[in-house]
Design brief:
The structure holds two protein chains of two kinds. Chain A has a domain of 41 residues. Chain A is built from two helices and two strands. By secondary structure, chain B is α+β, with helices and mostly antiparallel strands. In chain B, a hairpin with a 2-residue loop joins β9 and β10. Among the domains of chain B are: 134 residues, Triger factor/SurA peptide-binding fold (Orthogonal Bundle); 112 residues; 110 residues, Chitinase A, domain 3 (Roll). Chain B starts with a helix and ends with a strand. The chains are: A alpha+beta, B alpha+beta. β2 of chain A pairs antiparallel with β1 of chain B.
Chain lengths: 72, 553
């Protein structure tokens, strides 16, 4: 059994140069992720609306050929 | 004819297409599976086809990207485990969806833009940085594309990027978003912690005195009470007891062996699939393809609209099929594809999936098994013959002890309660009878499920009784230290109150360790992850006030 006492909470200091750099990097990453998510959602909405037909046999055949290393 | 068509490997989809048409023409089976046009694409989104080459290219690129990242070639198991096929598929389907949308919105670009894009592609430029037409055509040929197709794909890609640009514009996230995430990840907390163990409880409490244990025993009598128990005496006659009385007759064993030819002599068997064709010619053509491993047997069946159940003949014994087919399949010593051969349904190809050799068990090998069966049957017969005599003796009032002396039955005693399940108590028949008999009752012969017989008498009924302290002392000590954990929890609660009231770890004789400025994703030796989680979930109330976290581990 453990007993612990919380003494201090120190928040992230956003004023240092390093913090500002981190903030801008994370901001860019987030924007990229949001863009990616948006495009995925948009494409998936299009797929739902227009309908996707897949020939699984053909897909499997390509998988076998590429994974088997024979290629086209 | 076929080999002359196989100009190069990259034309395989084309060849398959032709083969499909060929098969359609020759066989004349109308089936959904054989359709030349479907081989050039793997599907479509709306009206937009997804070319085979796009998917193949996407899959290759996906695999190459990952290979480059980890610095070696991926095995096909890894490719499947990472789900790269679905990722590649997802990408081409999404592209097709966007192209379909571009077509719907009538978005297209002019030749100059397409030319610009192609000229700017690094792969197609020569050493001096200029567009190299030969390099361009060579690269395309390697990917199985012609220039026209590639230019079409480029046109589509540019149109797609216009739509993508429109969707993605204005996705700059507010800086508070990033700030919230960073604040969460970078927040630091400092705390003291100490482990509380049994040593902190009074020494007496760790090694309980006899008095403490007796008190626990008195408080929890129900735990130390023996259940209602029956003292039983019974006589038993089981088939095993009579086994050595059975004389095994070799001639009877031989008769038994001869009377079961199916059991001891199993004919050769083959597990077989079969596809019937319209003509020998078609069958030969397909056989050629199968021999070259261009297509699988299952695929051939699928192309003809046949499922596995349609072609499965299952487990065939030698002699079940027509003689010439039988000869073909049973002379084969390896699995594989055989035929074509004429059957009453038409020319057929057979696939042998498994070969099972004939199994002949000689009399000598079967003797042991047959003997055991024989003894079992005969000893049951013997018991049946004895039952009447034993019943008579019981009716005459003989005691179980006397019965054991007079007959082959054996006398035993058992103490039976609701936890007894060994030996004879494993039989349902015995348990039912044991619960039914009364003291002074008249023993009757009953049967057991394996052919044995028994009779029993209830000698004594022992009411549930508290077991003497001395016999359960160890159990009491174990139970007591379990209850010790509860007192540990109580102690922790007391300590928390004291700490809250201004006492320190030191003043309470707790050996505390300090951890300062740690983020939530760190690992600290000796501290379970739950404790950190708990410490990070506490909201700071006031800086002056101490907040306590406690976890039971």
């Amino acid at each position: 059994m453990l007993l612990a006492r919380l003494n201090d909470i120190s928040e992230f200091n956003s004023e240092t140069d390093e913090s500002k750099e981190l903030l801008s990097q994370v901001g860019i990453q987030l924007s990229n992720q949001v863009t990616g998510d948006l495009l995925r959602l948009f494409a998936s909405a299009l797929k739902d609306r227009d309908g996707v037909i897949l020939n699984q046999n053909a897909v499997n055949q390509i998988n076998t050929q590429i994974l088997g290393g024979t290629g086209f | 004819m076929l080999s002359s068509m196989r100009i190069s490997k990259k034309n395989q989809p084309f060849v398959y297409g032709l083969l499909g048409l060929l098969a359609l023409g020759l066989v004349g089976i109308a089936s959904g599976g054989v359709d030349g046009s479907r081989i050039s694409s793997i599907g479509k989104v709306g009206e937009e086809p997804i070319p085979v080459t796009s998917y193949a290219q996407s899959l290759r690129n996906t695999i190459q990207n990952i290979s480059r990242q980890i610095g070696r070639q991926l095995t096909s198991q890894e490719i499947s485990a990472y789900g790269l096929q679905s990722e590649a598929l997802e990408n081409v389907v999404s592209s097709a969806a966007l192209s379909n949308e571009a077509k719907r919105l009538k978005i297209s670009v002019g030749d100059d833009l397409v030319a610009e894009e192609i000229i700017a592609t690094p792969t197609f430029t020569s050493v001096d940085g200029k567009f190299d037409k030969e390099a361009y055509e060579f690269a395309l040929e390697n990917s199985g594309l012609d220039t026209k197709e590639y230019e079409l794909q480029t046109r589509k890609a540019i149109a797609r990027s216009l739509i993508e640009g429109a969707v993605a514009s204005g996705t700059k996230t507010p800086s508070s978003h990033a700030m919230t995430l960073i604040k969460f990840a970078r927040e630091e907390r400092s705390f003291d912690w100490a482990s509380i163990d049994k040593k902190l409880l009074s020494t007496q409490a760790i090694n309980p005195t006899i008095d403490q244990l007796k008190a626990h025993y008195d408080k929890n009598n129900i735990l130390y009470t023996a259940p209602l128990s029956r003292k039983l005496t019974y006589v038993l006659l089981s088939p095993e007891m009579l086994a050595d009385r059975i004389v095994v007759s070799q001639s009877e064993l031989k008769d038994e062996y001869k009377s079961q030819p199916d059991r001891f002599n199993k004919p050769a068997r083959r597990i077989i699939d079969r596809i019937i064709f319209d003509s020998v010619k078609t069958a030969r053509t397909v056989k050629d393809q199968l021999d070259k491993e261009e297509v699988s047997f299952t695929k051939v069946a699928e192309d003809r609209g046949l499922t596995q159940t349609d072609i499965d003949l299952g487990d065939i014994e030698k002699g079940q099929l027509d003689k010439d087919i039988d000869d073909l399949l049973f002379n084969a010593s390896e699995v594989g594809i055989y035929g074509p051969i004429d059957t009453n349904l038409g020319p057929a190809l057979f696939q042998i999936n498994a070969i099972i050799d004939p199994q002949n068990t000689s009399f000598a090998d079967a003797a042991e098994e047959l003997t055991a069966e024989y003894v079992s049957i005969e000893s049951r017969k013997l018991i049946n013959e004895m039952i009447t005599d034993i019943d008579d003796l019981l009716a005459q009032g003989l005691t179980l002890e006397e019965i054991a002396k007079e007959t082959a039955m054996e006398l035993e005693k058992i103490s039976y309660d609701n936890t007894t399940e060994n030996g004879i108590a494993a039989y349902d028949g015995f348990r039912a009878e044991a619960l039914k008999v009364k003291i002074g009752g008249f023993p009757e012969l009953r049967e057991l499920s394996d052919g044995g017989v028994f009779a029993l008498r209830l000698d004594d009924l022992i009411e549930p009784a508290l077991r003497p302290f001395e016999t359960v002392k160890d159990q009491v000590a174990t139970d007591w230290s379990d209850s010790d954990k509860k007192s540990l929890l109580k102690l922790a609660d007391t300590l928390i109150i004291k700490l809250d009231n201004g006492e320190t770890f030191e003043s309470l004789n707790l050996n505390a360790e300090s951890v300062s400025s740690i983020t939530r994703n760190k690992y600290i030796d000796g501290i379970p992850a739950q404790l950190l989680e708990e410490l990070f979930s506490i909201k700071q109330v006031k800086l002056a006030k101490l907040t306590m976290g406690i976890l039971c581990c």
